[in-house]
Amino acid sequence: MSSLARGVFIVIEGLDRSGKSTQVARLVDRIQSATTDASSSGSTPRAVPLKFPDRTTAIGKMIDAYLRSESDLDDHAIHLLFSANRWELAPKIEALLASGTTIVADRYAFSGIAFSAQKSPHLNLTFEWCKAPEIGLPAPDLTLFLDVKPEIAMQRGGYGEERYEKQEVQTRVRQVFERIGEEIGADRWVVIDAGQDRDKVGDDIWNRVVPVLRDTHKPVTRLWHGQEELR
Protein backbone atom coordinates (compact mmCIF):
# COMPACT_ATOMS: atom_id res chain seq x y z
CA MET A 1 0.00 0.00 0.00
CA SER A 2 1.58 3.25 -1.07
CA SER A 3 1.91 6.22 1.22
CA LEU A 4 -1.00 8.62 1.05
CA ALA A 5 -0.82 11.68 -1.19
CA ARG A 6 -3.86 12.89 0.71
CA GLY A 7 -6.27 11.33 3.13
CA VAL A 8 -9.20 9.26 1.93
CA PHE A 9 -12.74 10.09 3.03
CA ILE A 10 -14.79 6.96 3.74
CA VAL A 11 -18.35 6.98 5.08
CA ILE A 12 -20.20 4.02 6.56
CA GLU A 13 -23.98 4.40 6.36
CA GLY A 14 -26.90 2.17 7.22
CA LEU A 15 -30.05 1.76 9.25
CA ASP A 16 -29.96 2.00 13.02
CA ARG A 17 -28.26 -1.03 14.64
CA SER A 18 -26.77 -2.16 11.33
CA GLY A 19 -23.30 -2.36 12.91
CA LYS A 20 -21.89 0.95 11.67
CA SER A 21 -20.02 1.95 14.82
CA THR A 22 -18.44 -1.49 15.17
CA GLN A 23 -17.26 -1.52 11.58
CA VAL A 24 -15.98 2.07 11.72
CA ALA A 25 -13.78 1.18 14.70
CA ARG A 26 -12.57 -2.02 13.04
CA LEU A 27 -11.79 -0.28 9.76
CA VAL A 28 -9.81 2.50 11.46
CA ASP A 29 -7.75 -0.12 13.31
CA ARG A 30 -7.20 -2.10 10.12
CA ILE A 31 -6.01 0.93 8.17
CA GLN A 32 -3.70 1.92 11.01
CA SER A 33 -2.13 -1.54 11.17
CA ALA A 34 -1.87 -2.05 7.42
CA THR A 35 1.70 -2.66 6.30
CA THR A 36 3.22 -0.77 3.39
CA ASP A 37 4.58 -2.51 0.33
CA ALA A 38 8.24 -2.72 -0.58
CA SER A 39 8.16 0.34 -2.81
CA SER A 40 6.78 2.69 -0.16
CA SER A 41 8.59 4.87 2.34
CA GLY A 42 7.51 2.57 5.16
CA SER A 43 5.09 5.00 6.75
CA THR A 44 1.83 3.69 8.18
CA PRO A 45 -1.41 5.23 6.88
CA ARG A 46 -3.09 7.43 9.47
CA ALA A 47 -6.83 7.09 10.07
CA VAL A 48 -9.31 8.69 12.45
CA PRO A 49 -13.01 8.07 13.11
CA LEU A 50 -15.71 10.74 12.97
CA LYS A 51 -19.29 10.31 14.11
CA PHE A 52 -22.33 12.25 12.92
CA PRO A 53 -24.05 13.86 14.55
CA ASP A 54 -21.20 15.16 16.68
CA ARG A 55 -23.09 15.51 19.95
CA THR A 56 -20.29 17.41 21.69
CA THR A 57 -20.85 20.76 19.93
CA ALA A 58 -23.50 23.30 20.92
CA ILE A 59 -25.59 22.27 17.93
CA GLY A 60 -24.87 18.61 18.61
CA LYS A 61 -26.23 18.89 22.15
CA MET A 62 -29.54 20.20 20.79
CA ILE A 63 -29.66 17.26 18.37
CA ASP A 64 -28.85 14.82 21.16
CA ALA A 65 -31.75 16.06 23.28
CA TYR A 66 -34.08 15.73 20.30
CA LEU A 67 -32.95 12.18 19.46
CA ARG A 68 -33.43 11.12 23.07
CA SER A 69 -36.97 12.57 22.90
CA GLU A 70 -36.04 15.04 25.62
CA SER A 71 -37.12 17.98 23.43
CA ASP A 72 -39.28 18.62 20.38
CA LEU A 73 -38.33 20.68 17.35
CA ASP A 74 -39.97 21.48 14.04
CA ASP A 75 -38.95 18.84 11.48
CA HIS A 76 -37.52 21.45 9.13
CA ALA A 77 -35.51 22.98 11.97
CA ILE A 78 -34.02 19.69 13.14
CA HIS A 79 -33.01 18.82 9.58
CA LEU A 80 -31.16 22.11 9.27
CA LEU A 81 -29.48 21.55 12.64
CA PHE A 82 -28.18 18.17 11.48
CA SER A 83 -26.84 19.83 8.33
CA ALA A 84 -25.26 22.66 10.34
CA ASN A 85 -23.56 20.05 12.52
CA ARG A 86 -21.87 18.63 9.41
CA TRP A 87 -20.93 22.06 8.09
CA GLU A 88 -19.25 23.04 11.37
CA LEU A 89 -16.98 19.99 10.96
CA ALA A 90 -16.33 20.50 7.23
CA PRO A 91 -13.14 22.57 7.79
CA LYS A 92 -11.80 19.81 10.06
CA ILE A 93 -12.53 17.20 7.37
CA GLU A 94 -10.70 19.23 4.73
CA ALA A 95 -7.71 19.84 7.00
CA LEU A 96 -7.39 16.16 7.95
CA LEU A 97 -7.54 15.03 4.33
CA ALA A 98 -4.97 17.62 3.30
CA SER A 99 -2.64 16.38 6.04
CA GLY A 100 -2.76 12.84 4.68
CA THR A 101 -5.13 11.51 7.33
CA THR A 102 -7.87 9.13 6.27
CA ILE A 103 -11.32 9.70 7.77
CA VAL A 104 -13.83 6.95 8.47
CA ALA A 105 -17.18 8.54 9.29
CA ASP A 106 -20.10 6.92 11.08
CA ARG A 107 -22.99 8.48 9.07
CA TYR A 108 -22.89 11.65 6.98
CA ALA A 109 -25.18 13.84 4.88
CA PHE A 110 -26.92 10.80 3.39
CA SER A 111 -28.41 9.87 6.77
CA GLY A 112 -29.63 13.43 7.21
CA ILE A 113 -31.47 13.28 3.91
CA ALA A 114 -32.85 9.78 4.43
CA PHE A 115 -34.21 10.31 7.94
CA SER A 116 -35.86 13.63 7.04
CA ALA A 117 -37.19 12.71 3.61
CA GLN A 118 -38.88 9.59 4.99
CA LYS A 119 -41.26 11.96 6.77
CA SER A 120 -42.47 13.46 3.48
CA PRO A 121 -45.77 11.51 3.31
CA HIS A 122 -46.84 13.64 6.29
CA LEU A 123 -44.79 16.82 5.86
CA ASN A 124 -43.49 19.02 3.06
CA LEU A 125 -39.98 17.58 3.38
CA THR A 126 -39.24 16.64 -0.21
CA PHE A 127 -36.10 14.76 -1.20
CA GLU A 128 -34.72 17.80 -3.03
CA TRP A 129 -35.44 20.14 -0.10
CA CYS A 130 -33.64 17.78 2.27
CA LYS A 131 -30.68 17.49 -0.09
CA ALA A 132 -30.23 21.23 -0.67
CA PRO A 133 -28.39 22.16 2.59
CA GLU A 134 -25.88 19.36 1.99
CA ILE A 135 -24.76 20.57 -1.44
CA GLY A 136 -21.11 21.65 -1.29
CA LEU A 137 -19.99 19.53 1.67
CA PRO A 138 -16.77 17.52 1.13
CA ALA A 139 -17.78 14.41 -0.82
CA PRO A 140 -16.71 10.95 0.39
CA ASP A 141 -14.40 8.96 -1.85
CA LEU A 142 -16.40 5.88 -0.89
CA THR A 143 -19.65 5.26 0.97
CA LEU A 144 -20.34 1.78 2.29
CA PHE A 145 -24.01 1.14 3.00
CA LEU A 146 -24.53 -1.62 5.55
CA ASP A 147 -27.74 -3.21 4.34
CA VAL A 148 -29.79 -5.05 6.94
CA LYS A 149 -33.52 -5.67 7.02
CA PRO A 150 -35.28 -3.58 9.70
CA GLU A 151 -36.79 -6.69 11.25
CA ILE A 152 -33.29 -8.08 11.80
CA ALA A 153 -31.88 -4.79 13.12
CA MET A 154 -34.67 -4.50 15.69
CA GLN A 155 -33.52 -7.79 17.28
CA ARG A 156 -30.14 -6.27 18.15
CA GLY A 157 -29.26 -4.84 21.54
CA GLY A 158 -30.38 -1.29 22.37
CA TYR A 159 -32.94 -1.06 19.57
CA GLY A 160 -35.77 1.35 20.28
CA GLU A 161 -33.89 3.65 22.62
CA GLU A 162 -33.99 6.63 20.25
CA ARG A 163 -36.67 8.48 18.34
CA TYR A 164 -36.28 6.93 14.88
CA GLU A 165 -35.80 3.31 15.98
CA LYS A 166 -39.17 2.03 14.80
CA GLN A 167 -39.57 -0.60 12.10
CA GLU A 168 -41.92 1.44 9.90
CA VAL A 169 -39.56 4.44 10.03
CA GLN A 170 -36.50 2.32 9.24
CA THR A 171 -38.29 0.75 6.27
CA ARG A 172 -38.98 4.18 4.77
CA VAL A 173 -35.43 5.32 5.53
CA ARG A 174 -34.05 2.29 3.66
CA GLN A 175 -36.08 3.26 0.58
CA VAL A 176 -34.61 6.78 0.60
CA PHE A 177 -31.10 5.36 1.00
CA GLU A 178 -31.71 3.29 -2.14
CA ARG A 179 -32.57 6.45 -4.07
CA ILE A 180 -29.45 8.21 -2.77
CA GLY A 181 -27.28 5.25 -3.80
CA GLU A 182 -28.66 5.42 -7.32
CA GLU A 183 -27.81 9.14 -7.49
CA ILE A 184 -24.28 8.74 -6.11
CA GLY A 185 -23.46 5.84 -8.40
CA ALA A 186 -21.87 2.42 -7.96
CA ASP A 187 -18.32 3.77 -8.14
CA ARG A 188 -18.75 5.65 -4.85
CA TRP A 189 -21.70 3.85 -3.20
CA VAL A 190 -21.26 0.18 -2.31
CA VAL A 191 -23.88 -1.98 -0.61
CA ILE A 192 -22.56 -4.45 1.98
CA ASP A 193 -24.67 -7.31 3.35
CA ALA A 194 -24.71 -6.45 7.06
CA GLY A 195 -26.77 -9.49 7.98
CA GLN A 196 -23.62 -11.62 7.85
CA ASP A 197 -21.20 -12.41 10.65
CA ARG A 198 -19.39 -9.20 11.66
CA ASP A 199 -16.00 -10.61 10.61
CA LYS A 200 -17.34 -11.36 7.12
CA VAL A 201 -18.84 -7.86 6.96
CA GLY A 202 -15.46 -6.43 7.95
CA ASP A 203 -13.67 -8.42 5.24
CA ASP A 204 -16.17 -7.31 2.60
CA ILE A 205 -15.62 -3.70 3.65
CA TRP A 206 -11.84 -4.07 3.56
CA ASN A 207 -11.88 -5.55 0.07
CA ARG A 208 -13.75 -2.47 -1.14
CA VAL A 209 -11.59 0.01 0.76
CA VAL A 210 -8.12 -1.19 -0.27
CA PRO A 211 -8.34 0.03 -3.90
CA VAL A 212 -9.53 3.45 -2.70
CA LEU A 213 -6.62 3.76 -0.28
CA ARG A 214 -4.27 3.24 -3.22
CA ASP A 215 -5.89 5.94 -5.36
CA THR A 216 -5.31 9.24 -3.57
CA HIS A 217 -4.30 11.54 -6.41
CA LYS A 218 -7.80 12.54 -7.48
CA PRO A 219 -9.02 15.84 -6.03
CA VAL A 220 -11.50 15.85 -3.18
CA THR A 221 -14.86 16.90 -4.57
CA ARG A 222 -18.01 18.47 -3.17
CA LEU A 223 -21.36 16.73 -2.78
CA TRP A 224 -23.50 17.10 -5.89
CA HIS A 225 -20.98 19.47 -7.49
CA GLY A 226 -19.75 16.98 -10.06
CA GLN A 227 -15.96 16.96 -10.05
CA GLU A 228 -15.49 20.48 -8.73
CA GLU A 229 -12.31 20.50 -6.70
CA LEU A 230 -12.25 21.83 -3.15
CA ARG A 231 -10.67 25.29 -3.06
TrEMBL record:
Keywords: ATP-binding, Kinase, Nucleotide biosynthesis, Nucleotide-binding, Transferase
InterPro entries (alphabetical): P-loop_NTPase (IPR027417), Thymidylate_kin-like_dom (IPR039430), Thymidylate_kinase (IPR018094)
Lineage: Eukaryota, Fungi, Dikarya, Basidiomycota, Agaricomycotina
Keyword field contains Nucleotide-binding: yes
NCBIfam families: DTMP_kinase (TIGR00041)
Name of protein: Thymidylate kinase
SUPFAM superfamilies in UniProt: P-loop containing nucleoside triphosphate hydrolases
EC assignment: 2.7.4.9
Origin superkingdom: Eukaryota
Uppermost EC category: transferase
Keyword ATP-binding: yes
One BP term from GO: dTDP biosynthetic process
Domain Thymidylate kinase-like: 12-205
GO molecular function, one term: ATP binding
GO CC, one annotated term: nucleus
Pathway: Pyrimidine metabolism; dTTP biosynthesis
Family affiliation: Belongs to the thymidylate kinase family.
Short name of one Pfam family: Thymidylate_kin
